[in-house]
Amino acid sequence: MSAIAAPLPTVPRESFLTQGYTIGSWLGTRDHKRIAILYAISITLFFFLGGTAAAIIRLELMTPQGDVVSADTYNKLFTLHGVVMVWFFLIPSIPATLGNFLVPLMIGAKEVAFPKLNLLSWYIYVLGGIFTVAMLIAGGVDTGWTFYTPFSTMFSNTHVVLAAMGVFIVGFSSILTGLNFIVTIHRMRAPGMTWFRLPLFVWALYATSLILVLATPVLAMTLTLMVIERVLHVGIFDPALGGDPLLFQHLFWFYSHPAVYIMVLPAMGVVSELITCFARKRIFGYRFMCYAILGIAAFGFLVWGHHMFVSGQSVYAGMVFSMLSMLVAVPSAIKVFNWTATLYKGSIVFTAPMLYALGFVGLFTIGGMTGIYLATLAVDVHLTDTYFVIAHFHYIMVGGSVMAYLGGIHYWWPKVTGRRYSEAWGRVAALIIFFGFNLTFFPQYLLGYLGMPRRYHEYPPDLQVLNVLSSAGASILAVGYVLPLLYLGWSLFKGAPAGPNPWNARGLEWATDSPPPQENFREVPTVTQEPYAYDPEHPER
Amino acid sequence: MNARVVPVDVPWRRETASLGMWVFLATEVMFFGVLFLAYMHARIVDPQGFAAASRLTHEWLGTINTGVLLTSSLTMALAVRNGWAGHRRLVIRLLWATAVLGLAFIVIKGIEYGLEWRDGLVPVLNFTYSGAHRRAVETFFFLYFLMTGVHAIHLTIGVILVAWLAIRDRDPARPVRRRESAECIGLYWHFVDSIWIVLYPLIYLVDLYR
How would you class B18 by CB atoms within 10 Å of its CB: exposed for 0-12, middle for 13-18, buried for 19 or more? Predict the structure, then answer.
């Protein structure tokens, strides 16, 4: 544990939380910190909605026969899981909650550049969410989260239009968040906060924002075309109408591959903050980390074709996309090596956030390495649409992004609420999640390698053992996800006051009260040093 | 150091707002980019069909509209420019000229849509074309109505914004000098104009030289 200053800290009497207690003071707020909390509540609801769908999927897969739900319902369940988890949880998760709360604090600003747009972005998110819930109540959609044509435009008799509208709308909330961050980071930095004094979390969100504003409109227009084709029976994706389904796939993945980096770059930013703080050591290769972040964002736009190796795109295109996909491994590996080098000779403290961060590094590495398998053309022909792919991207998105999100929530919890959570429970939950996650998804690598295809509710009986292990892991994972709700909720009322800087961390956000005052800083901070001035020889400093 | 904490001064606000506008326009480029890509793909699949379809368009109306819109960009640029110098009455006149030219574009576009309806070239609603390359002609006109329709929506928003600016500027208490709203609406207007500059050859000039 880090040292606590001698006089016991108290929760400050005035903070952003005390500026009005009415519902109106929350729903009409322009304070980026309150908007972050609105987002946190909404995405948590959607996380458990998507998680429930996953739980039923794993329950169905306990037995080789399709006995819990019908094949149609199963299709709707995995579509709901995908749509909700991707667009209503993972994409807004770190940027809209931790990012909204922390970016202005970290750069020493009073607010974001466009506070009204920031609130509007949350309302747009809610509207998109209403469409998605309406789709669910109306009876669901069975296309998979990818909405592939011509199935989505010609054959599916489920609520494709409602689902696509929900995704279309929520895209604009992402665009507004990205726009706000870009302008905020360019224009609102405190005196002395040069680009290379920015915390890596801010760099990561800057790169994420670039992807958000450049990729999301492509998805919006593509879904619009898909809906027009479905409703009016005229279009450009359906071969029966003179169109080309591959065009849809190209456009869809032109958004959805960069979207993977929207989900994982902010996680990398969080992990950089956690590791350097709890190793009590400045981050290794700070500038390389910045360039790696930008490199991943840029390369991310050039690799979408690796989702289409067996789609019938030209084999030469496949080869180029394969090579470019392998290149993404370079900046990713730079980041992993730099995190491990940061740990080397550090003064490591195994707090709950640090456990999540270390979990991230290991799981992200496994997820990344198996990505190389999938980027290899010939191997991918065998592995396409199997559980190997499912395991791979869950290692990145759940083992990576969700772990980092939870680590960040724990790390900045005292800053947001002004109170400390139970560190012991925090560690227990982190370990349960790590164990449950691996038990859920590692068997899926084996299942996929053995040839079990995704998106079926039945499978051959010899695959049952691995499926039961996976389902058992999912139930452990569920316990791990519910636990933080309990002890974090408890800490809101009973937690010990945290004081401004309970972790003894660097960074401007720790230089102000916890919770911060409405205007963030009582006086304009001036930055005179690098972001991570930790000293492993004197971890208490 | 280009960064400040308390955004009070006007040049700071103008630059911040215009950076926001530029980022927004980048999203718009990607938005229209999908349509351009779809157009390119369909045209490569059946170039003769697209040429045949393009011959059915009213290139004179399109050309007149190009002139109208380019002129409106000139008056918009002059309005922003004269705003810097603080010439209020001139600014208001130029803004109204811009709005009227934008409206003229929409009216001419409407006349063109009417002619296409008469010729039975509107997919889904009234499509009677039965010559060669029927499928490609239908796709062409589907994309034509989609692209020009989305463009016209943008232009309508632009006309409303410019008219709002012109009405607001009559209030002598408001400074016309260095306003971020004029700067941003100007950027938006030029963007809508430049989309049309791309649309014009894609729609009307495919086969004109033969």
Answer: middle
Whole-angstrom Cα distance, residue B141 to residue B39? 10
Query: How many C-beta neighbours within 10 Å does residue A375 have?
Result: 21
Q: Does residue A119 form part of some domain?
A: yes
Q: How far apart (Å, rounded) are the C-alpha atoms in residues A118 and B131?
A: 52
Angle, in degrees to the nearest 10, between helices A387-396 and A352-375:
140
Give the CA dihedral A133, A138, A143, A148, nearest 10 degrees.
-80
Phi-psi region of A314 (alpha: psi -120 to 50; beta: other; left: phi over 0): beta
What total number of domains does chain A contain? 1
Q: What are phi and psi of B166, to 5 degrees?
A: -65, -40
This prediction has a pTM of 0.94
Distance in angstroms (rounded) separating the CA atoms of residues A181 and A433: 31
Across residues A153-160, what is the average pLDDT?
Answer: 93
Give the nearest partner residue to B34 out of A182, A218, A521, using CB atoms: A218
Would you tell me which CATH number, out of the four given (1.10.1420.10, 1.20.120.80, 3.20.20.60, 1.10.10.10), belongs to the domain B10-204? 1.20.120.80
| Amino acid type, B179 | R
What is the H or E stretch that residue A410 is in? helix A403-417
Contacts of B116 (CB under 8 A, 6+ apart): B58, B122, B141
Query: Looking at beta carbons, which residues of chain A come within 8 Å of B15?
Result: 187
Q: From the list B2, B35, B138, which residue is nearest A221 (CB)? A: B35
Q: What is the pLDDT of residue B1?
A: 38
CATH number at residue A499: 1.20.210.10
Per the CB < 8 A criterion, the answer to whether A425 and A351 are in contact is no
- Closest listed residue to residue A275, CA positions, set A368, A363, A353: A353
Encoding tokens for residue A154? Answer: 């010609």
Q: What is the secondary structure of A131-171 as a DSSP string?
A: HHHHHHHHT---STTTT-TTIIIII--S-HHHHHHHHHHHH
Residue A216 lies in a domain: yes
Q: Which residues contact B167 (CB under 8 A, 6 or more apart)?
A: none
Interface A-B, measured as beta-carbon pairs within 8 A, has a size of 104
Question: What is the Cα–Cα distance from A87 to A174, expressed in whole angstroms?
Answer: 9
Say what percent of chain A tops pLDDT 70: 99
On whether the CB atoms of residues A105 and A508 are closer than 8 A, the answer is: yes
- Using 50, 70 and 90 to split pLDDT, how confident is the model at A146? very high
Instruction: Give contacts of A232 with chain B, Cβ < 8 Å.
Output: 123-124
pLDDT value for A1: 45
pLDDT, tens digit, 9 for 90 and up, residues A368-401: 999 999 999 999 999 999 999 999 999 999 999 9
User: What is the three-class DSSP state of A497?
Assistant: strand
State the angle between helix axes of A423-449 and A403-417 in degrees (0 to 180), rounded to the nearest 10: 160
Nearest to B77 by CA among B93, B98, B102, B99: B98
Q: Which two tokens stand for residue B160?
A: 């409303």
Which chain A residues are within 8 Å of B42, Cβ to Cβ? 236, 242-243
Residues spanned by the domain of A407:
32-511
Q: What is the mean pLDDT of residues A407-425?
A: 97
Name residues 36-95 of chain B within 8 A of A (Cβ). Answer: 37-38, 41-42, 45
pLDDT given at position A13: 86
- Residue A10 corresponds to which amino acid? T
Across the interface, whether the CB atoms of B123 and A232 are under 8 A apart is answered yes
Which member of A175, A222, A235 has the closest CB to residue B34?
A: A222
Every domain of chain B and the residues it spans: 10-204
Q: Which residues of chain B have pLDDT under 50?
A: 1-7
Nearest chain B residue (CA) to A186 = B3
